[in-house]
């Protein structure tokens, strides 16, 4: 990860020899891996100040005004605390808690509250140290609560309780020329240096039997208490290494009774005693009116409220839940709360970790974890910091590293410029940030670190934030654009409705036509039958008429009277039959004609319905055309507003000054991003010059994150209906993926893997890198693919730690001690990928291993584990590469 690597020399040689005897570990049952205690420092931070309690020393040993290491380029955040601790006396001899063994030290789970337990002479001392989030701190002072509950487990007796505060407020930011005063009006000790403006206030939280003293040399509170009965209510106005202390003397404690004591330490560097005293007094009032315990309860209540809506995966073990809660607390502790440009940044680690600086990369993983755990406001604040931070500028006002290294056409030593012109000043640091929100990159003999992976990671993270929260206004954070898009959206909705209506009328017309065809067929049969009935009826009448006609002929041809009478009778009979037939068939004919008329009317009715449906289609088409025209006009009307105002949005920043620049950084020769320092910060001199690490290369990790970033930009563009940008970023992401598969995928031991970099591709002793697992985690490589399985097999074969007793992994094959130690981040990201690959057993082994280690080390996740012993190493507690990756790993596994 970071740049400070130590060459192993003989040490690494010996560990390699040792590994031959130990052999290669294989992933066994989770119970085979048990962590052990190896860390003794607990950090408390509230985003404004940070401090450390040492379990080994039994005292508070560090307190600093800021939680970060450097406020700006020419500053280093000093530690003002030498030590602070409590003591007591039950007889004539004073005893100090830092001289007693610490039975237990822990965090109140899920908080920044440090709790230690010590026992002596039938007394139990529960000490608490916390930099508070709760209470009143309107001036953003640095505050530390030192609280102790003394419980008498023996007979009734008098107990005096002491506290010592040894801060270094000297002109040399150490112990030279310190000054102290006692403010009798506000009842506090002030220790300061009038030259530097740095000063501290110590406020006792129990007035009963109070005494105080400041002194140096043989006159310190410790010395006085060891020689006398009580402190003497005196101050040493000026001396080197002044020490301050309080005493609450002769407090009666009955058997089984507890009593609370405490001190608030306030710290500032600006000489503003009024502001500091206001903050200290406002919080001390709670304790003085009730008890110091009230301050502790107030802080615990604050944390309970903060965790109330926390998202946690179902099914976690008790210890996983404890570590999860402490991990989210670490992320909260790691976020700067000072007003100004630095607000919202999340540090890579807290003190005593070396990386108490805000990296883009580490911060991205922290933000993802904050989102997964439901802490959306903290995530939004951190993203806002990224999008508003100030880059280091050259004399012309351009980005310094961009002008000096990326765009510089001096491609040879000592600059090794990329000669790549970018269309805009880049948005995100090529490395990290000072506490005041300005860009920083570190140098060594091989140049600066210039990293492009953070540019993709931030896009990936922003997309995750807006998808999870639905807060797309974060991208278009401009009211004029919101109004303009609102008008377009309304017009678009009308067009969509008109389109739907046209489609519906066409469907209706088709149905009506089908109904008409069917009706014609049905009624044609009816008419046909009716016509046959008419024809039959007329036939019956015609036959009857022929008979009558025959009868008439017979009458006419009759000769005799008898014949004529018979013929007449027959004629009359047939005429009557004809008349009856005519009446009978007339009714039938009438009915048949009516059927024909009704049939024709039914068909005509269907024709009218079809005609109406045709008119509806014509009307719908006309309406749609009109509304499309209105939409076109509205877009044309609003386009200048959007084009003008878009430059003031986060969306413009992340596209023009991030996503677009990733595309511009693509090497046309091979389709990959050009060389950078990437995740392991290999510095700037090229690989073809150094022939080994550390050197800039075309790293797989940078290309994987760039793909994830461009893919995320495309998703956001599609959601925002910026179709041209959607096509642009989708196409760029597809091309980059194709280049990764073509240029970086290599066969090793009969299986495909992604090589660490283009330069190391084919070197089986160097090409394996745990960071490439992000291809699986980010979706570039499908978890059920042969490539995913090949990558995992290569990690196990080439990156597994082969000493000690661990299922974990080193980060790569570079070979120095820093690379070769076990990396918690790699363990947990591989666990996430294994979960996605449905290899839950192996994933759980890694999770259980890190959980077991945390269980024995204050529920904290480290940067590194020692290669041989698996002791905590590197920076602890770690943020995105520690607590953040643990949260992500658990969510990957249980989801």
Summarize this structure as a short list of keywords or feature phrases:
single chain, 895 residues, alpha+beta, 21 helices, 27 strands, elongated, disordered N terminus
What order do the strands of the largest sheet run in, or round the barrel if closed? 6-7-8-9-17-13-12-11-15
The percentage helix is 40-55%
Radius of gyration: 43 Å
Let me know the number of strands: 27
Distance between the termini: 28 Å
Mean pLDDT over the residues: 94
> What portion of the residues fall into strands of 2 or more residues?
15-25%
The main sheet comes to: 9 strands, antiparallel
- The best one-word shape is elongated
SS field, number of helical segments: 21
Low-confidence stretches: 2-31
Q: Structural class per helix/strand content?
A: alpha+beta
What features would you describe in this structure?
This protein has 895 residues and is α+β, with helices and mostly antiparallel strands. The chain is built from 21 helices and 27 strands. It has a nine-stranded antiparallel sheet with strand order 6-7-8-9-17-13-12-11-15, covered by helices on one side. It has a five-stranded antiparallel sheet with strand order 5-4-10-16-14, with helices on one face. Strands 1-2-3 form a three-stranded antiparallel sheet, with no helix packed on it. A hairpin with a 4-residue loop joins β2 (50-54) and β3. The model is unreliable at 2-31 (pLDDT under 50).
Give a brief description:
By secondary structure, this protein is an alpha+beta fold. The chain is 46% helix and 16% strand.
């Amino acid at each position: 990860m970071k740049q400070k690597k130590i060459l192993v020399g003989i040490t690494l040689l010996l560990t390699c020899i040792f590994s031959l005897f130990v052999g290669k570990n294989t992933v066994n049952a989770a119970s085979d891996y048990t962590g052990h205690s190896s860390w003794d420092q607990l950090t408390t931070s509230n985003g404004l100040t940070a401090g450390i309690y040492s379990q080994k020393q039994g005292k508070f040993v560090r307190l600093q005004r800021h939680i970060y290491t450097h406020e700006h380029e020419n500053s280093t955040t000093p530690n003002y605390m030498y030590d602070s601790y409590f003591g007591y006396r039950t007889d004539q001899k004073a005893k100090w808690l830092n001289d007693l063994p610490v039975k237990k030290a822990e965090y109140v789970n899920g908080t920044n509250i440090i709790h230690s337990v010590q026992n002596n002479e039938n007394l139990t001392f529960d000490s608490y140290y916390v930099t508070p989030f709760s209470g009143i701190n309107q001036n953003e002072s640095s505050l530390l609560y030192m609280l102790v509950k003394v419980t008498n487990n023996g007979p009734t007796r008098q107990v005096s309780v002491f506290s010592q505060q040894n801060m270094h407020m000297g002109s040399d930011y150490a112990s030279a020329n310190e000054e102290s005063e006692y403010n009798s009006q506000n009842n506090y000790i002030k220790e300061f240096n009038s030259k530097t403006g740095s000063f501290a206030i110590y406020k006792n939280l129990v007035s009963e039997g109070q005494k105080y003293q400041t002194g140096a040399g043989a006159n310190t509170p410790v010395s006085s208490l060891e020689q006398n009965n009580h402190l003497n209510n005196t101050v040493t106005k000026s001396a080197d290494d002044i020490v301050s202390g309080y005493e609450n003397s002769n407090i009666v404690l009955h058997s089984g009774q507890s009593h609370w004591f405490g001190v608030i330490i306030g710290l500032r560097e600006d000489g503003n005693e009024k502001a500091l005293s206001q903050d200290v007094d406002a919080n001390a009032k709670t304790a003085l009116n009730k008890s110091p315990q009230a301050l502790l309860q107030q802080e615990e209540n604050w944390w309970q409220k903060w965790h109330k809506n926390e998202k946690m995966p179902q099914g976690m073990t008790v210890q996983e839940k404890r570590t999860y809660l402490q991990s989210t607390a670490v992320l909260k502790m790691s976020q700067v709360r000072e007003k100004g440009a630095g607000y919202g940044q999340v540090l890579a680690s807290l003190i005593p970790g070396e990386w108490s600086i805000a990296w883009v990369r580490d911060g991205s993983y922290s933000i993802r974890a904050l989102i997964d755990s439901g802490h959306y406001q903290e995530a939004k604040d951190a993203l806002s910091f990224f999008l508003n931070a100030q880059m280091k500028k050259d004399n012309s006002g351009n980005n310094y590293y961009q002008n000096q290294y990326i765009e510089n056409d001096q491609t040879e030593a000592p600059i090794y410029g990329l000669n790549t012109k970018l269309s805009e000043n880049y948005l995100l640091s090529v490395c990290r940030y000072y506490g005041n929100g300005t860009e920083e990159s570190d140098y060594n003999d091989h140049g600066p670190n210039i990293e492009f992976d953070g540019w993709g990671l931030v896009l990936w993270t922003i997309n995750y934030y807006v998808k999870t929260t639905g807060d797309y206004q974060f991208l278009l954070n401009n009211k004029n654009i919101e109004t303009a898009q609102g008008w377009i959206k309304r017009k678009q909705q009308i067009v969509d409705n008109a389109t739907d209506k046209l489609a519906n009328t066409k469907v209706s017309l088709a149905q009506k036509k089908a109904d008409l065809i069917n009706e014609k067929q049905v009624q044609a049969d009816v008419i046909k039958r009716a016509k046959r009935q008419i024809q039959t009826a007329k036939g019956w009448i015609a036959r009857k008429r022929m008979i009558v006609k025959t009868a008439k002929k017979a009458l006419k041809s009759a000769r005799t009277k008898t014949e004529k009478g018979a013929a007449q009778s027959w004629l009359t009979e047939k005429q009557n039959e004809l008349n009856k037939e005519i009446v009978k068939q007339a009714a039938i004919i009438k009915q048949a004609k009516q059927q024909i008329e009704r049939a024709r009317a039914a068909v005509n009715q269907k024709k009218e319905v079809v005609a109406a449906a045709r008119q509806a289609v014509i009307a719908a088409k006309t309406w749609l055309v009109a509304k499309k025209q209105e939409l076109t006009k509205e877009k044309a009307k609003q386009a200048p507003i959007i084009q003008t105002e878009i430059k003031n949005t986060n969306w413009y920043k992340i596209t023009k000054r991030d996503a677009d620049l990733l595309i511009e950084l693509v090497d046309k020769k091979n389709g990959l991003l050009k060389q950078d320092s990437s995740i392991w910060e290999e510095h700037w001199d090229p690989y073809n010059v150094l022939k080994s690490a550390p050197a800039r290369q075309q790293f797989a990790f940078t290309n994987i994150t760039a793909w994830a970033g461009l893919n995320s930009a495309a998703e956001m563009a599609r959601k925002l209906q910026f179709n041209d940008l959607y096509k642009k970023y989708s196409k760029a992401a597809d091309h980059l993926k194709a280049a990764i598969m073509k240029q970086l995928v290599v066969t090793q031991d009969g299986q495909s893997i992604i090589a660490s970099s283009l330069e190391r591709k084919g070197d089986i002793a160097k090409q394996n890198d745990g960071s490439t697992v992000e291809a699986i985690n980010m979706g570039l490589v499908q978890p059920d693919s042969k490539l995913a399985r090949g990558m995992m097999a290569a990690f196990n074969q080439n990156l597994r730690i082969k000493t000690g007793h661990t299922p974990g992994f080193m980060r790569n094959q570079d070979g120095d001690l820093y690379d070769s130690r076990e990396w918690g981040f790699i363990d947990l990201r591989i666990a996430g990928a294994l979960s996605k690959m449905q290899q839950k057993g192996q994933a759980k082994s890694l999770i259980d291993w890190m959980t077991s280690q945390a269980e024995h080390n204050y529920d904290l996740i480290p940067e590194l584990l020692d290669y041989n012993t698996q002791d905590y190493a590197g920076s602890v507690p770690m943020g995105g590469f520690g607590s953040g990756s643990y949260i992500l790993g658990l969510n990957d596994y249980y989801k």
